[in-house]
Design brief:
Helix content: 25-40%
Strand content: 25-35%
Strand order of the largest sheet: 3-2-1-4-5-11
Structural class: alpha/beta
CATH topology of the largest domain: Nucleotidyltransferase, domain 5
Distance between the termini: 34 Å
Radius of gyration: 17 Å
Number of strands: 11
Number of domains: 2
CATH superfamily of the largest domain: ATPase, nucleotide binding domain
Order of helices and strands: EEEHEHEHEEEHEHEE
Largest sheet: 6 strands, mixed
């Protein structure tokens, strides 16, 4: 069987933390990675974005052997559309297509390492605004040549609880609203989460897990999955 990392893959990101782009898709083939991202703050048809990425890669939908999708936490509409599309795409491909899911916070951590390789090996904290003075918070550690390890699973925390969970050596990232609040109240330097696109889901450091077509559901910003 073809190794998972070498399969022709479609990656779909619907939970972009910056909220500027609705969707990002990337297609990986033996010829390279072909990415399409929705225009900033514009409505877009995800199916059309995927069609264009497949056209760029010069392949047909039936050539896809693996679908990767971020499960959240993230925006309600973006995740609902992305997860539903990924499930349908994989379902029509039947047993010829593998469906894998990813944590949006891990995708942000992976994008942060790609943007600044100097932080590889350090513990990375990611905070996404959960509103009402709360954040979705998780910690990860990158080891060279290995998959990103989750040290603290995503939890919905008060800002003060997230700050208390930071160690001096942590490299912390947050999105817009959370960035402003944490930067004002934390002694730690908090950076802005870099742009996260579907290519993060193709990064060999990205932790992924096999997803069931019938059980895969989005994990929303304030969903009941938190802390599970």
């Amino acid at each position: 069987m073809e190794p998972s990392a070498q399969r022709t893959t479609l990656a779909i990101l619907g939970g972009n933390p910056d909220g500027l782009t609705a969707f990002s898709v990337a297609v990986r083939t033996a010829q390279g990675v072909f990415e399409r991202t929705a225009p900033v703050k514009a409505r877009v048809d995800l199916a059309e974005l995927v069609r264009l990425a497949l056209q760029d890669a010069a392949i047909a939908p039936t050539d896809i052997r693996q679908v990767r999708v971020d499960q959240g936490p993230g925006s309600y509409i973006g995740l609902r559309v992305a997860v539903t599309f990924a499930r349908c795409f994989a379902a029509f491909a039947a047993d010829t297509c593998e469906l894998l899911a990813a944590d949006s916070l891990a995708a942000a951590a992976t994008a942060a390492i790609a943007a600044d390789p100097a932080i590889a090996g350090k513990r990375i904290a990611i905070a996404i605004d959960g509103r009402q003075g709360r954040v979705q918070f998780a910690r990860f550690r990158s080891v060279e040549g290995a998959t990103l390890a989750t040290e603290a699973k995503p939890q919905l925390l008060l800002d003060a609880e997230a700050i208390a969970g930071l160690a001096n050596a942590d490299v912390a990232f947050a999105d817009g609203a959370a960035l402003q609040r944490l930067a004002q109240t934390s002694a730690h330097a908090v950076r802005a989460i870099p742009a996260v696109s579907a290519t993060a889901l193709l990064d060999p450091r990205m932790p992924l897990y096999a997803a069931s077509l019938h059980e895969l559901e989005p994990l929303y910003l304030t969903g009941s999955y938190v802390g599970g």
